[in-house]
Specification:
The complex is a heterotrimer. Chain A is mostly helical. Helix content of chain A is about 80%, strand content about 0%. Chain A has a domain at about 15-235. Chain A has 15 helices and two strands. Chain A is globular. Chain B has eleven helices and two strands, in the order ααααββααααααα. Chain B starts with a helix and ends in an 11-residue tail after the last helix. Classes of the chains: A mainly alpha, B mainly alpha, C alpha/beta.
């Protein structure tokens, strides 16, 4: 049961993206880099929130843990990146457990609130605890970059996205992945059928935190700077949520489509309208799509594809070469 | 000691007023309306426009704020919440998106620069070393009146019984001739108006600025969640716990840790006692 | 009404874009490609708009005078940061990689500047900052000149600002008012932490004023009554407020509560002329620092001409009067262009940097130095602190101030709504006051 069609889809996606630097100017590539990172974060968010139904409003907390850890280790303590980045990912996965513990007892909206409280708490603590290390409200600037220039950074960020997406796609197809959907539908039934929901949830949270940590760590080395206002922020959460939802939750393609759609919508509006108007339009579009099409752009594309396919088949002559 | 008591009562009164409209929606519809903070913001800005920019009397300012808050809440209910009914997660996500979009709208109209509001009533009450503004005293009294009125409305009126009936058993309510849509609209409207009223006082304490909705929302969430769903008395008690905790923290421990304790309280109570300190009380 | 002005602004932008699009193909000569100057900062905050408008006025004057670098027109492109760190990074990339800016003028706040600084080091675009005063950035230029030499800061850094405050404390607060004890009220930001620590120590050492207590408060604090009650109970001679975020909350509650202790310090909300309307006319008695040129000053003729142009053009639309960084943007942009004229362009970078370092524009009033735009060169030592401040605006921290401007002045808002300068004496046109409810 090898899913040839989907594998072909992955190959086309990877191939097309790898050719982008040949056709796009560096200014547009920079937008694609941001879209790549946003897609990683949205995928990570969706793996908990979309699949298991434990909506996380504190995802920037996990991303920021990864980002801050490697920033501090490499900038303040001069660790080489090859050690600081894996350490940061490990720290993020452990922090994911902070999320996991409340999820043992509460779910739904309450869980979302606890994660939001985590994010706000972390925001307040970076200003109060050891500002000499975190840089306090100003943060840290001049963090080592891995590669410089738009094209190398594009390839780096896209590789991470591609590997992360492929990993999540693969995991979602395993038995563990299928069982996650059951957690969303009916936790009681899962327990009754002899599966451990605790193990399932631990798996989902671990994977999500892993992807968030990798994304956060590479993101901060791309940005070159970090500040609490850029990380523990409702606007950041808003972008992640909206990217995943507008693209299509519980899919792999959805969050990626959403991230690209949003980034380009915002950036293309820049020359025409400046400032808050862009965010107003952005929020309104997100809201309209979400209310009218809760399954996002992916479902629109999918039904469009189905329709086109059906039409194509209908127009095919009866004795055609099909099969 | 007396100082602590006065400061604590004053702040708790404001927090109770902020939370009460949120409690109402939560208790009736069981939905987490994260756009609640925008009612507070709307109330403040509308009052500011009417009273401070147009120079009209304060009564007009209050009326305008209450109408704007109530109207906006009904719009949110009709066009967003009702369409997503039965999916509380979708409601909380979409109201959060709405709140961020509203913030952008406020920046667009009023610019991001913060604005000061005049107190509703001028003057300072002094007793030995203690000073409290009359404005704060008015806010506290208003909050008690609003809470008391709400309690009477929900417990002892026909309207209150109908609302409670809808929240407990929708089908049963329909059978006994109650229109649940009308009840829901009315509840949302009252919630929006109360939020806007709280917003006017909140803004006279602090200032008007586009992200001013975040902290009151956190307070409202904390009060409702810690107090237990839909318990008005529970909310009142928890507003006082949070208010006094904050005054004690700023005065005796460290003023910068003010918010940290509130967050910790939310997390600990939600994890240890998900139903809140005062349980799933009916009202 | 406001929506209308915004709509007008939108139309203006569109018309401008259309005009340049039309002008480009039929332009007189291909050799006269426009020089692109980027503006990075908020396009809706008072601070950001001051800098942007200062830049616009400078650009219009230069274009009206026949363009620059051999008759080329300047095209000013704005990228809005919305005071958001990540948006700031995107905006810096946009100006470089889409608009190919030759020079960037910034009206960014501290953490936004720090956010795009690594991009500046990568693109190596000449950049002039007009608002942030964070000494950490100057320290980066000093420590790694090769990497950051394209950066200039047109406002005195935090340490320099703090030093003048110590002098004010010694001359006015200690000697004139006779105050001996203070309670510091500072927000929990990096800015306040740095300034507060320094001012607290030095007030004690140089002015003999003892810090009784330091209260660090959360910037989201709703109710300051417990804090003021606590501070007043300690019975200090005065309070020293350091507030750069949500500044109107502590200052307006101070007035509403009529706290029985005088208060001075840093209140960023009070450095613009719009402050009076924003407080609904209740801002009297407040005093704050402001870098030069500040509101309430008597200006030299050149700066006055800029003010007149600004008011004629924007006077009804807030900010109704340029903040200090509006002046800095106007003069800074002209200085950067003049350096480019001398160096033969913004490229090569080393030539422009050398000429920018040689900038020395002195503005005089009544035959005295009133303002000086020059920058500290690498290796140059500031005599009072014994430190290097490479590429910071050149300031003079000793009393006659005849070698440069003092890093800042103290402004006092009077009860009739007029701001006055009360320190240093060279610029003063008013007296330091305490609020009327204090005997």
């Amino acid at each position: 049961m090898i899913p040839y069609r989907q594998l072909a889809g992955w190959a086309v996606f990877g191939g097309v993206m790898c050719l982008l630097p040949l056709v796009l100017p560096p200014g547009i590539l920079r937008m694609v880099i941001f879209a790549n990172f946003l897609a990683i974060f949205a995928l990570s968010w969706d793996f908990i929130s979309g699949r298991t139904g434990y909506v996380s409003f504190g995802h920037p907390f996990l991303i920021a843990i990864g980002a801050y850890s490697t920033a501090i280790l490499s900038f303040r303590f001069d660790w080489p990146l090859i050690i600081s980045i894996p350490s940061a990912v490990l720290i993020t996965v452990i922090s994911g457990l902070f999320f996991f513990v409340p999820a043992l007892r509460i779910r739904g909206t309450y869980f979302a609130l606890v994660t939001l409280a985590f994010m706000e708490l972390a925001y307040q603590l970076t200003q109060v605890l050891r500002p000499d290390i975190t840089g306090g409200t100003r943060g840290i600037s001049g963090i080592t970059s891995i590669v410089s220039g738009a094209v190398p950074n594009f390839y780096l960020s896209f590789s991470i996205l591609f590997v992360a997406a492929l990993l999540l796609w693969f995991l979602a197809r395993t038995r563990m992945g299928t069982a996650l959907a059951a957690v969303r539908m009916d936790e009681g039934a899962v327990t009754a059928s002899g599966l451990s929901t605790i193990r399932l949830k631990l798996f989902a949270f671990g994977v999500s935190a892993l992807v968030a940590g990798i994304g956060g760590a590479f993101y901060v080395h791309y940005l070159g700077s970090i500040a609490p206002r850029a990380m523990f922020d409702i606007n950041f959460l808003f972008q992640i949520l909206v990217a995943a939802l507008i693209g299509g939750s519980t899919t792999i393609a959805g969050p990626i489509i959403g991230a690209f759609f949003l980034t380009f919508l915002l950036e293309y509006l820049r020359p025409f309208i400046d400032g808050p108007e862009r965010f107003l339009i952005f929020g309104s579009v997100a809201l309209i799509v979400y209310v009218l099409k809760p399954n996002g752009i992916y479902s629109i594309l999918e039904s469009g594809y189905g329709l086109a396919l059906a039409r194509f088949r209908r127009f095919r002559p009866e004795g055609g070469p099909a099969k | 000691m007396l100082n602590l008591l006065i400061q604590g009562l004053a702040l708790s009164g404001l927090y109770a007023l902020i939370a009460v409209g949120f409690t109402m929606i939560f208790s009736v519809g069981r939905v987490l309306n994260l756009a609640y903070g925008t009612y507070i913001m709307l109330g403040g800005y509308v009052y500011f426009t009417i009273v401070q920019e147009q120079g009209l009397p304060k009564v007009a300012g209050f009326a305008g704020a209450l109408i704007a808050g109530g109207l906006f809440a009904v719009i949110v209910y009709e066009f967003l919440v009702r369409r997503l009914e039965g999916n509380p997660k979708a409601v909380s996500i979409s109201t959060l998106i709405l709140a961020v979009a509203m913030q952008a709208l406020i920046v667009l109209i009023y610019r991001p620069t913060s604005k000061s509001m005049w107190p509703v009533i001028n003057g300072v009450f002094r007793y030995e070393e203690i000073f409290v503004t009359y404005n704060v005293i008015v806010a506290t009294v208003t909050s008690w009146v609003a809470l008391g009125g709400l309690l009477i409305l929900v417990r002892y009126t026909q309207f209150g019984r109908a609302v409670r009936a809808v929240s407990m058993d929708r089908k049963g309510a329909v059978i006994s001739g109650i229109d649940p849509e009308r009840m829901n609209r009315a509840t949302w409207m009252i919630s929006g108006a109360l939020g806007a009223l709280a917003g006017v006082f909140f803004a006279t304490y602090t200032q008007l600025f586009p992200s001013m909705w975040v902290w009151p929302l956190i307070i409202a969430v904390a009060v409702v969640v810690v107090g237990g769903i839909g318990s008005i008395i529970g909310s009142l008690i928890v507003a006082h716990i949070i208010g006094f905790m904050e005054v004690v923290t700023t005065t005796y421990i460290a003023a910068e840790l003010r918010g940290v304790f509130t967050m910790l309280l939310i997390i600990i109570v939600l994890v240890m006692a998900p139903k809140g300190l005062f349980g799933r009380g009916d009202i | 009404m406001k929506l209308l002005t915004i709509a007008k602004r939108g139309v203006g932008v569109a018309a401008f874009a259309g005009a340049t699009a039309l002008a480009m193909p039929v332009g007189p000569a291909l050799a006269a490609d426009p020089v692109v100057i980027g503006y990075i900062g908020s396009l809706s905050s008072d601070t950001g708009l001051s800098a942007y408008r200062g830049a616009q006025i400078a650009v219009d004057e230069l274009n009206a005078g026949g363009g620059i670098l051999g008759g080329r027109e300047i095209k000013l492109v704005a990228a809005d940061t919305q005071e958001d760190v990540t948006e700031g990074i995107k905006a810096y990339e946009y100006l470089n990689e889409v608009e190919n800016a030759d020079f960037i003028l910034s009206g960014s706040i501290d953490d936004v500047s720090l956010g795009w600084l690594p991009r500046m080091a990568e693109f190596r675009t000449p950049t002039l900052d007009t608002w942030t005063s964070y000494i950490g950035i100057i320290e980066m230029v000093v420590a790694d000149y090769e990497k950051y030499k394209m950066y200039f800061m047109n406002v005195g850094n935090d340490l320099a600002l703090g030093t003048v405050y110590i002098d004010f404390g010694r001359d006015v607060l200690a000697r004139q008012m006779g105050w001996k004890t203070v309670v510091m009220l500072q927000e929990d930001t990096a800015f306040a932490g740095a300034v507060g620590g320094f001012v607290g120590e030095e007030l004690n050492a140089q002015a003999g004023i003892e810090v009784v207590e330091t209260i660090v408060y959360d910037t989201q604090t709703v109710d300051f009554a417990p804090i003021y009650n606590k501070a007043a109970a300690l019975k200090p001679d005065f309070l020293f407020l350091i507030s750069s975020v949500n500044s109107q909350v502590p200052s307006s509650q101070y007035v509403k509560l009529q706290v029985p202790v005088p208060m001075t310090g840093i209140n960023v909300a009070a450095i613009g002329l719009d402050f009076w309307n924003d407080t609904g006319g209740a801002g009297g008695g407040q005093s704050t620092f402001s870098p030069l040129p500040a509101i309430g000053m008597d200006f030299d003729p050149v700066s006055q001409a800029f003010v007149d142009t600004y008011i004629a053009r924007y006077g009804d639309d807030r900010p109704i009067f340029p903040h200090f960084n509006g002046f800095n943007a106007y003069f800074g942009l002209k200085n950067a262009v003049a350096a480019a004229e001398r160096a033969g362009g913004f490229e090569p970078l080393d030539d422009w940097v050398r000429e920018m370092e040689n900038t020395d524009v002195v503005l005089e009033k009544d035959g005295q130095l009133w303002h000086r735009y020059a920058y500290w060169k690498p290796g140059e030592i500031e005599p009072r602190t014994g430190l290097e401040f490479t590429h910071n605006i050149k300031f003079d921290m000793e009393a006659p101030y005849d070698d440069g401007i003092p890093p800042m002045v103290i402004i006092q808002w009077y009860h009739d709504g007029s701001p006055r300068v009360v320190y240093p004496p060279k610029y003063a046109n008013g007296e330091f006051q305490v609020p009327p409810w204090i005997k």
